[in-house]
Automatic annotation (TrEMBL):
The keyword Repressor is annotated on this UniProt entry: no
Organism (species): Rhizodiscina lignyota
Organism domain of life: Eukaryota
Keywords attached to this entry: Glutamine amidotransferase
Pfam families, alphabetized: ThiJ_like (PF17124)
Name the record gives this protein: Class I glutamine amidotransferase-like protein
Length: 254
């Protein structure tokens, strides 16, 4: 049976690269891919990353835009599940994937008590050896960081991780502030960076791994089937490593 993957998403604001590039990798690997939004309606990407001068200068690459156009025509994307449904569970999936996006619409999933509860239940099941896995990129890591266990600690409290780096977030915010305002600050100007939000929820700051290189960079936790990445430039590597991790984990469980 092919591995099953689910993308947990907000209704609006996900980054098209961080969604479509992993989807294509999973699709090409023969994985069964599903999507879930709050009310079971198709999600819409951050339009600024796809069109206009922002999309041209700062948005998705031509390849990512092509993959996104392919993705949104698929029946799975057009008919998502509802993560708010009472009977919705992540237990049926081999991989939970959390794409990022800095548009303020993604706060819907970052702040969702229901999503936090789902991840509180699922993430501990990824402890090695396991056939369950999680991968997150950019603000997707913030969703995990803000999801708490019964003891109040983050579900990734003991994990090694990365996420959107403070210097990257602040750099693009200040570079674009005159014409985009606080667009690159999901919770508004002056709010803590994604890196700080995530690091504050870890047992030790040294668990947060960073690289300012523009070369692809991901972090694989040694104790959990958990992969994380920083920004769209890491999406392809994250996806390929996720395919390897899930395929190996599923095979070892047979």
């Amino acid at each position: 049976m092919a591995p099953r993957v689910i993308f947990l998403m907000a209704d609006y604001g996900h980054d098209p690269t961080e969604t479509a590039i992993p989807w294509k990798a999973f699709h090409d690997a023969g994985f069964n891919t599903s999507f879930a939004t709050e009310h079971g309606k198709p999600a819409n990407a951050d339009e600024k990353m796809l069109s206009g001068i922002t999309g041209t200068l700062l948005g998705a690459t031509k390849a990512a835009k092509a993959a996104y156009q392919e993705l949104i025509k698929t029946p799975d994307f057009q008919n998502p599940l509802s993560w708010a449904a009472e009977d919705f569970t992540l237990d049926d999936y081999d991989l939970v994937f959390l794409p990022g996006g800095h548009e303020k619409g993604v706060r819907q999933i970052i702040d969702s008590a229901k999503v936090h509860k789902l991840l509180e239940s699922y993430f501990p099941k990824t402890k090695k050896p396991s056939n369950k896995s999680v991968a997150a990129i950019c603000h997707g890591v913030q969703v995990l960081a803000t999801a708490s266990r019964e003891d109040g600690k983050s579900v990734i409290h003991e994990a090694e991780t990365t996420a959107l780096l403070h210097n990257m977030e602040q750099g693009i915010f200040h570079a674009t502030r005159l014409f985009l305002g606080d667009y690159y600050k999901t919770y508004g100007a002056g709010s803590p960076s994604v890196q700080k939000t995530v690091t504050d929820r870890l047992q030790n700051p040294s668990q947060f791994k960073s690289s300012l290189s523009l070369s692809p960079f991901i972090v694989e936790d040694p104790n959990y089937n958990y992969l994380s990445a920083r920004f769209p430039g890491d999406a392809e590597l994250l996806a390929s490593k996720a395919v390897e991790m899930v395929s190996s984990a599923v095979k070892s469980s047979l």
